[in-house]
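chain below, 358 aa
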Amino acid sequence: MKARLTKWRLVSLVVMMTLILSGCGEPFLSTLQPAGEVAQTQYDLMILSTLIMVIVIVVVSIVYAIAVIRFRRKKGDNSIPKQVEGSHTLEIVWTVIPIILLLILAVPTVSATFKLADVSDAEVKDEEGNREAVVVNVRANLYWWEFEYPDHGIITSQDLVVPTDQNVYFNVTASDVKHSFWIPAAGGKIDTNVDNVNKFYLEFDSEKAEEAGNVFYGKCAELCGPSHAIMDFKVKALSQDEFTAWVGDMQNAGEPQPTTDLAQQGQEIFNQQCLGCHAVTAQDARPETARLAPNLANFGERTRIAGFLDHNEEELKNWIEDPEKYKPGNTMTGTYDTLSDQELDALAEYLMGLKVQE
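prediction:
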């Protein structure tokens, strides 16, 4: 008896801890905190479907309880109740009600599906022939993200920058295996495939963005390999003026110039061993197939290394020295394990100085 009681106490403790921990994590990393029109539409559909399901469960439970209580066999009563063979009224009721509930759910769902799938506005151009909307080409890789702004000539990685209060259109693909692009607070998700391009749009509310510190979080939502769980990225939601300024800075940023002798040494090491895969300018003219690793143009401004490590020189050196330890299966593994401590120091200082905006 004591063993059973102890077991149930342990189970209760685990359940309580699970409920408590489920509320932990980064802010605005949940579909239950919509931060844009698309996310709000999807949230409203979830609430509607959940409400319908709850109503059905409650009604069925009440009918079941009434049937059990009212028609249960009483002690000493062995009589057979009156047998009812069918009722046209009841048959009509339990046929019509589900149809009505399905219509209530189907009409807004189908309407929202067609609305969210409409990306025709992405091709609208002004009198000068320039596209009015912001379009981002997203490419998923093992295990990092590339973001290309084709109308601005900008390529960046890991940090997606978007303007608020307007639709941002995405063309998503993958370079190796199937991934899934998902920003929970903004909406989604959508598969990134190797052999076709999926298109959709999101909108980021300026008030919600300010509340979130102008940073949202994105994830890969398709099991893609051993490091799938840490294939994350950041989303910086800026006002239109701030976004325009960022675009200008990225377009005008030239080749980074080291400011110290150690950083100069690091640049030489980078040019010898890293430049074949990485780029350090946002205007990377190489074809997609030649862009084998994240663009590092603004690496010094990021808040994470490899998407999840703290952004400091120590963690950067740890990552360069043994990337397999932190992201199993990544394509950088085994590339830099011959660097000396001094070379690691120089390379880290150079990389941390790669900044476009101070």
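The mean pLDDT is 88. The chain has two domains: 27-66+89-238, 261-352.
thats it, cya
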